[in-house]
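DATA SHEET
Item: assembly model
Revision: 1
Owner: S.N.
Input lines:
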Amino acid sequence: MALHEQTLTELKAGLDRGDFTAVDITQALLDRIAAHGKDLNAFITVMGETALANAGQADKARAADQGGVLNGLPIVHKDIFCLRDVLTTCGSRMLKDFVSPYDATVVERLAGAGAVVLGKTNMDEFAMGSSNETSFFGPVKNPWGLEYSPGGSSGGSAASVAARLSPAATGTDTGGSIRQPAALTNTVGFKPTYGRVSRYGMVAFASSLDQAGVITRSAEDAALLLGVMAGFDERDSTSIDHPVPDYVAGLGESLDGLRVGVVRQHFDAGLDEATGKAVRDALAVLEARGATLTEVDLPNLDYCVPTYYVVAPAECSSNMSRFDGVRFGHRAEDPKDLLDLYCRSRGEGFGAEVKRRIMTGTYVLSAGYYDAYYLQAQKVRQLISEDFKKAFEKVDVIAGPTTPTPAFKLGAKTDDPITMYLNDIYTIGANLAGLPAMSTPCGMVNDFPVGLHLVGPHWAEASLLRTAHQYQTQTDWHTRCPEAYR
Amino acid sequence: MSADWEVVIGLEIHTQLATQSKIFSGASTAYGAEPNTQACLVDLAYPGVLPVLNKEVIRMAAMFGIAVNATISPRSIFARKNYFYPDLPKGYQISQYELPIVEHGELFIKDAGGNDKRIGITRAHLEEDAGKSIHEGLDRSSGIDLNRAGTPLLEIVSEPDLRSAREAIAYMRKIHTIVRYLGISDGNMQEGSFRCDANVSVRPVGQKELGTRSELKNLNSFRFIEKAINFEIERQIDIIEDGGKVAQETRLYDSDKDETRPMRSKEEANDYRYFPDPDLLPVEISAAFVDAVRKTLPELPDAKQQRFEAEHGLKADDAGILTASRALADYFESAASASDAQAQTVANWVIGDLSGALNKDGLDIEASRISAADLAGLVNRINDNTISGKIAKEVFEAMWAGGGTADAVIESRGLKQITDEAAIEAVVDKVIAANPQQVADYKGGKDKLIGFFVGQVMKETQGKANPGQVNKMLKGKLSS
């Protein structure tokens, strides 16, 4: 099997056997990135030289019987993670020349385990978007059809894994930004419990919702990476000191007795029929593996999107304030005074979607509107959390569609932000409630992939990964690759 | 001020907490470093960085709360105060808004009649300081120094219970004394560690509702606060008496012109869009923690003053002066315990000559050139009649100038008082013999001449004779 065809777990085994070296892997994937990266527009920065140097180091370490659990294994980072001495653009003109002076905790931990970073992936500007079209660097293309969107905001990460340019990528998920692109590109997308993975060094969009995760080709690979990334970080006050289990070790356990919840509201009118069928077929597979299916209610599901679009912009409007043209980032030429410096630096540096959210957020926090919008949204957020809590009294995992439809064409929804926002209707709840959730490939509709969405109670990462892994032992959807990238 | 008007003042005091590192980062808080050398990535608000609370500030705020008999909130919340300014790197200040850490406190000051007056403390909340904008010496541009950005502040807000500039100063001094007693702030006003905003309004005596207030910003010396408030009171009364209305506005005090003037209105038309900071968890404080902090509280100024009066028999005023600073009180107590003399005598020396010398050299008590033990040694030599009070002044000067202990100075300069009866008698006899006219006059009824004779004897002995002894002996000889 060619190197690019192998999963992280397979590459790890090959390295252990000495079938090939980390430099071999790195070179092979850099060649693939050179061949396909431009068409897909998946990368903002390719780190060829440092990647090869680090791979060389990894090979030396392995020769000396040293190196961490990911020693020599390739990965790409969403360009929202700070990486020392490397461009960290967040897909924005504001940071197009910003070189980070430090490493994010996620970056540091993966590097510490020996992972080799190939490059940094394209994304919606500051992670605000569901189609990767808000990037200053242009949209990422979906490997399943270049005129289609790969989803967003972690579109570059998803596309690069789907097209076999890298076996794994980091991503961030504020309302579905890992899971939705994973679903639309036939990859596995995992978002952990809020507080499971440190946010330090991950440029903030909406602090109470943002969580780092991974995009891979298998649940097994996600488990391998999560074990390295997860854990308390004293530099992030919202990271939680909770034991990190061996996620890989738990994958083999059977699904006997697993109670899977099916949300009544998930199969309402908004869901594409063929997508719904693929998801139902997947549920049947889980049942056949020993799980029991139970219907559950999420009565406030319809309020997820409006609640999210109050809370997220509110936090965003404040988080974006540091980009003022004073210390780093884009600065307008020849400002005539301070106000001009602010207005033009921000006016020129931010794109339309970021501006829309800053304005929405500023509005909902303003005197006279705070109670009606922000406070009200926080109350509804509480209700949504309680809905999940009630549901998880009856079931261990909730399963359903990740997105209402398969991939849509680039430009199809750009003029209609509301329709675009509704793309995240099934994923947003997990962010509002801080729950772990993932998407795994579960079918094809008109040659475009469909994702199965799994949500668990807090800290149920292991049971989600096990469910997905057991599903993957019975199906081959997750192994499918677009013809052009085999 | 006209007697028809009542003044209403509330103070917001910003006191810098004496932590080693900043409230949300590990950068140093030391004052006076080169610009931007004490600002880390968190202070600079780089993309992706996060605040982590310095737990020391919680302990310090709790100490303050306990000291002013306040409620320590079991749960308090940090909020973001959003506004743009170049010395505010994040574009928001992390502060406390709806749930502050300290609420419902009080302290007592003396009113004009010398009676205790209660001043309510609405709240005290934690927040970070901003950096500094520097405009001087730069051509058509401004500099930003972020060393101060993220320095922890405790903002102490009083009820509008103060009725004059004098009361405002008394309250502020009391807070100043308390925070320094607690060791939670150095209270250095020149460096901006202790500054205040004053809300001032006036209303006709007897009127219930408050008048329109103005907020005086950034007052950083007791003298300026008094002047600014008094100026503002006069200004407001003049406006109202002329039929005008006081505008609610923020005003700056100009110490050069001794006047207040409005800040540009643009700077106060802010909607700060406060909301809970999602990067920080609520601060949970247990009763056990508060109890543990309570046990570490030092004796506070009021209690110490009362004890000085009761235990050392000091006059109330003197006890007040000595307890105004913990270091001064400690100095006094340590000198008093090392001295055989009455504590009041020691107090007189500390308040008198010692404080005078410190003032003259611009020194704090901690830097006194005479230790408490050495001052006690000096007082002891007066007490045991080794030297007179007058000679003691000379000894003190010499000690201050580095001459060593009182004993060393007395020894080296031969200042030991003459108490030997025979030696004094010889001089007394000599003086009597040399002044027959004065002797005759004294005997003729001019009692006041006794001073002349004492003076002559002291002159002969270079001040070393014991004045009491001389007096007694002269009276005896001249009346025989």
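QC remark: Residues 3-259+435-485 of chain A form a domain with the Amidase signature (AS) enzymes fold (CATH 3.90.1300.10).
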